[in-house]
Design a protein that fits this description.
about 375 residues; seven-stranded parallel sheet; globular
Length: about 375
């Protein structure tokens, strides 16, 4: 879609709105809808305008289009920005949003690590900031905020800052200050992640996926198992061959027939996975929480450490679906994986509620030796 078409898709002028939300992924938009639903139950959320800072990835754009329509169906104003549609797009986007940013009383963001969002935060005068989940990264954001550290995604932590990081450092530092509560500013985190020790002054509201459960389902449950994909290979954390071996072994052990691909998984990897495992690869057109809630869905959902081990038990509460998580063996990590990778992934698994833990052991020769047994302890 051209930038001109993208601009035509939004309202000509953003209405004077007390709440302005910025999202870059389908999950972020889902969680904004969950936040608005919860806020409406405890008091008015204010006129909500969602600004979609559209990425270039076709799969993400497609899911965002579907989520944007669901938001409109809920009466939410949606503004679609071709924020990455060329060299001049960021300047046009930021310039077009400056007025709305200065007028907004409340800003809702889905990814505090996003440079785009951090830049927008330097413009706003809002006295209320809300961070909704962008997956398990919320856990790392809270920890870094509490320690007063610079905001760095977990899979990059431990590496040397690059030239772009150094140039952007003042903006990132300013964004971190704005995400810190003060005398005239409140900060809330709306999350389904386990947050035990939030920084002083940061309010935490639990996301129980009430909107999802009210709008969709209950699902029809099949006898088999479904396997959820992850982008750990694409982010350079897990070796692709070891990942494929683990997927094959889990599918054989638990009788899985479908593989729900993560939106960032490469087509090449998914093709190889389908050929070598026999799994039916499914490219969801909505976040998995909605797909699972609508059904049909397997009686068991298998996953590696990821956001869904926290969100699916909430979205599927009251059903008979069991969520099982398979730990990442340290031997699967690449030599370029962040030193924080193993500890972070273990934390994602260890803090998950209402899930069954599995281990997958891959033989050194490359064939599965023992997969799917319950983890000790």
């Amino acid at each position: 879609m051209s930038p001109r078409a993208g601009r035509a898709d939004r309202a000509a002028d953003v209405p004077t709105s007390s709440t302005l939300a910025f999202v870059e992924s389908p999950v972020q938009l889902l969680n904004v809808l969950e936040w608005a639903h919860a806020a409406a139950a405890t008091g008015p959320a204010g006129g909500l305008t969602v600004v979609v800072l559209s990425p270039n990835d076709p799969m993400t754009r497609g899911q965002l289009r579907r989520m944007a329509q669901l938001a409109r169906d809920e009466g939410v104003e949606v503004r679609w920005e071709e924020a990455r549609g060329g060299a001049s797009a960021p300047f046009q986007t930021i310039g077009g949003l400056a007025g709305a940013l200065r007028k907004a009383d409340r800003i809702v963001i889905g990814d505090p690590f996003s440079r785009y969002v951090q830049l927008l935060l330097t413009i706003t005068r809002a006295r209320s900031l809300v961070v909704v989940d962008d997956g398990t990264a919320t856990m790392e954001f809270i920890a870094q905020l509490a320690r007063g550290e610079r905001l760095v995604r977990w899979h990059r932590k431990g590496g040397r800052p690059g030239p772009r990081d150094l140039v952007f450092a003042p903006v990132s530092a300013s964004a971190r200050r704005r995400l810190t509560p003060g005398r005239t500013r409140t900060v809330e985190v709306f999350s389904s992640m386990p947050i035990d020790q939030a920084p002083p002054g940061v309010g935490v509201t639990v996301n129980a996926f009430a909107w999802t459960r009210e709008r969709f389902g209950p699902p029809r449950i099949t006898r088999g198992a479904d396997l959820v994909g992850t982008s750990l290979v694409e982010t350079g954390v897990v070796d692709p061959d070891r990942y494929l071996e683990a997927v094959r072994a889990l599918a054989l052990t638990h009788g899985a027939t479908r593989y729900f691909a993560h939106r960032r998984e490469s087509s090449e990897k998914l093709h190889r996975l389908a050929v070598e495992t026999g799994l039916q690869v499914v490219r969801p057109d909505l976040p998995l929480e909605l797909i699972a809630r609508r059904g049909p869905v397997g009686r068991t959902i298998l996953s590696f450490p990821s956001t869904v081990v926290h969100t699916l038990p909430l979205a599927l509460a009251g059903t008979e679906v069991k969520v099982a998580v398979c730990d990442i063996d340290p031997a699967w990590l690449t030599e370029n994986a962040s030193p924080r990778a193993q500890g972070f992934l273990s934390g994602v698994t260890g803090t998950a509620r209402d899930v069954h833990r599995l281990t997958a052991v891959i033989a050194s020769a490359g064939s599965p030796r023992s997969v799917g047994s319950p983890a000790p302890g």
